[in-house]
């Protein structure tokens, strides 16, 4: 339809995408077969039927289990390339994507296999589709800070090809302050810093991400709305919040898309933009996420164009490249 074509045609960037969360059930089956890995599902439909979550942890349990089919460099290449191919069809021109190395190294997969596969696909994605990209290494916050230091050491030879570090996984009980030292170290190495904060966790976790981790972006950030002074601070500083509407619905962060805070956040002057988070698990890629909020919140085409512009403004592209896209 016309609105879908409009959104699809807008030049867009995606800044909050977990590569492991783009593993479609079809590819999961193909990799299970290729690597002779048993998976607890009979059919692709059975996999999709299992994607019925009541909170973040429900999802994470299934997401980490699904990642078990990823075994060698080619698997990580195929995963990344499949995502980029889809993005090329939606006029997504720039992506800054997350990966969770600990999910793989903790089950004996070499860091090099993960990083080499992903980086080769990002290179080919730029060559074949003109999609520029950056790679963000996420620390799993349910694990220790010491474990995060171990993964940063493994990444050491790759740091010139890694854009930044992030913080994901189970938020409640694992506040940003737990990772103060590793984020300081990452900053000292010239890496950008982002963190999931205020998805399920409370507004003080967003304060910690700002004041203790010195993040350059907040991933999600929905719960800032509980704290009007925090909203004013985020708006004043022009901090980008990477919102994920379909994720919020599937993980019961909101009970209805009509209650998504995106529109009120825009009206409060927050720099919000739209992302898909884990599209294979949450039922839609980038265009679907724009359309979900457009329809539920009655967004105008101008609103959608602002969101698309914000996607480049919030990126880590340099000023010249941003201007070229906006
Ligand atoms: N939140 C936290 N951790 C995650 C997510 C998320 O939405 N997706 C993948 N890891
Ligand atoms: Zn996320």
3D architecture notes:
- It catalyses: adenine + H2O + H(+) = hypoxanthine + NH4(+).
- The active site is at residue 199.
- Keywords: Hydrolase, Metal-binding, Nucleotide metabolism, Zinc.
- The chain is an alpha/beta fold and 326 residues long.
- The chain has one domain: Metal-dependent hydrolases (TIM Barrel, Alpha-Beta Barrel).
- It is 50% helix and 13% strand.
- The chain contains 17 helices and eight strands.
- An eight-stranded parallel sheet has the order 1-2-3-4-5-6-7-8, sandwiched between helices.
- The longest helix has 19 residues, at 111-129.
- The protein is globular.
- The two termini are 25 Å apart.
- Residues 18, 21, 56, 63, 168-169, 196, 199, 247, 277-278 line the site of hypoxanthine.
Blueprint (SSEs and pairs):
Blueprint: H1 2-9, E1 12-14, H2 25-34, H3 44-50, H4 56-66, H5 73-88, E2 92-99, H6 101-105, H7 111-129, E3 132-140, H8 145-155, E4 164-168, H9 180-188, E5 192-197, H10 203-211, E6 217-220, H11 228-237, E7 240-243, H12 245-250, H13 262-267, E8 271-274, H14 279-282, H15 286-296, H16 301-313, H17 319-325
Parallel strand pairs: 1-2, 2-3, 3-4, 4-5, 5-6, 6-7, 7-8
Pfam family, one: A_deaminase
Protein name: Adenine deaminase
Function: Catalyzes the hydrolytic deamination of adenine to hypoxanthine. Plays an important role in the purine salvage pathway and in nitrogen catabolism.
């Amino acid at each position: 339809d016309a609105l879908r074509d409009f959104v699809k045609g807008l030049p867009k960037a995606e800044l909050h995408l977990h590569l492991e969360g783009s593993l479609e059930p079809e590819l999961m089956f193909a990799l299970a077969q290729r690597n002779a890995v048993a998976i607890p599902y009979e059919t692709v439909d059975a996999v999709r039927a299992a994607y019925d979550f009541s909170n973040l942890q429900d999802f994470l349990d299934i997401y980490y289990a699904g990642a078990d089919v990823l075994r060698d460099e080619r698997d990580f290449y195929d995963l990344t390339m499949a995502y980029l191919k889809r993005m090329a069809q939606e006029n997504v021109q720039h992506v800054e994507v997350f990966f969770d190395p600990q999910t793989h190294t903790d089950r004996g997969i070499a860091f090099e296999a993960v990083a080499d596969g992903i980086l080769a696909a990002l290179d080919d994605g730029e060559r074949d589709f003109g999609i520029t990209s950056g790679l963000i290494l996420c620390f799993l916050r349910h694990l220790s800070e010491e474990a995060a230091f171990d993964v940063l050491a493994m990444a050491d030879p790759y740091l010139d090809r890694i854009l930044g570090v992030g913080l994901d996984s189970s938020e409640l009980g694992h506040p940003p302050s737990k990772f103060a030292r590793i984020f300081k170290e990452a900053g000292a190495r010239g890496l950008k810093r982002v963190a999931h904060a205020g998805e399920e966790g409370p507004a003080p976790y967003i304060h910690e991400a700002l004041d203790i981790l010195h993040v350059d972006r907040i991933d999600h950030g929905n719960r800032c709305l509980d704290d009007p002074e925090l909203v004013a601070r985020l708006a004043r500083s022009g901090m980008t919040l990477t919102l994920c509407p379909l994720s919020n619905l599937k993980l019961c962060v909101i009970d209805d898309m009509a209650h998504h805070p995106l529109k009120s956040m825009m009206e409060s002057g927050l720099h919000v933009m739209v992302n898909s988070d884990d599209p294979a698990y949450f039922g839609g890629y980038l265009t679907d996420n724009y359309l979900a909020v457009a329809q539920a919140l009655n967004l105008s085409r101008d609103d959608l164009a602002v969101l698309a512009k914000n996607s480049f403004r919030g990126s880590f592209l340099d000023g010249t490249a941003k201007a070229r896209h906006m």
